[in-house]
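Record NADPH:quinone reductase, 324 aa.
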Amino acid sequence: MVKAIRMTRTGGPEVMEYVDVELGPPGPGEATVRHKAIGLNFIDVYFRTGLYPQPLPAGLGMEGAGIVEAVGEGVTEVKVGDRVAYAGRPNGAYAQARNMPAALLLVLPDKIDFETGAAMMLQGMTVQYLFHRTVPLKAGDTVLFHAAAGGVGLIACQWAKVMGLNLIGTAGSEEKVALAIENGAKHVINYNKENFVERVKEITGGEGVAVVFDSIGKDTFTGSLDCLRPLGTMVSFGNASGPVPPFSLNELQSRGSLFITRPTLMTHTAKRENLEAMAKSLFGVVKSGEVQVPVKQRYNLADVAQAHIDLEARKTTGSTILIP
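=>
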């Protein structure tokens, strides 16, 4: 038996139950991972509330790091004793141990500890596909990145600096503004004190930005479009404030023939060769020290409800992990 979080209904943090579950041997193509650390991400909230539906009862969590304890028939990607990390479905990372599709596991370099591994995979791979696969960014490009002091945001600020991008961030407090600047953002706008559209236009001399990376959703969508220069690209990759409501394609035309995309990590990592290439890119900048993954909050797995409360209240910065 192992301890794990299970939910039989969707709703608030109270629907997550800390229970004993039976963990059988890994099946064909699977590996048993004993977690040392588990990542907490806003997408977990979407599954908990039912915004992203899944069959119930179900587990939660898409990111973790640990040691391979057993492998099933046909597994070639990892072996017993390997230090591994992963990000992606199926849900179920909120557990002391679990059986995972081995094709999703990546051997963790010795220079990267388990906490960093658990904190960086989903968020770091997200920045990797946003900056290297979604839009062909180049040095000197000016981009807007919402929630710049969050887990994804702080990695994005650092990676943007490595690439020579001019990243304009948004954040909700002076403390978070300072944190994003410290991590490499060129400018950061406190959206509780300033109109971010007006400030972006001021910073860019009225031109607007080449790309907006928006994980907020409903509350920032229209403003994000207004920040783009003609032929700019809107990248909507999250719904922290709620899903974007339906809109007319004329909104893109009237603002200068804009592009828009709604990418997901799972699409970009669906092929093993892409997953490995993206991980190699991420591991490289982390091992070199060019991108550091700040674990700002740690909670025991049994206290995951409080972790969700703090995450939704925007009390967290950087990355958050659960300790099984």
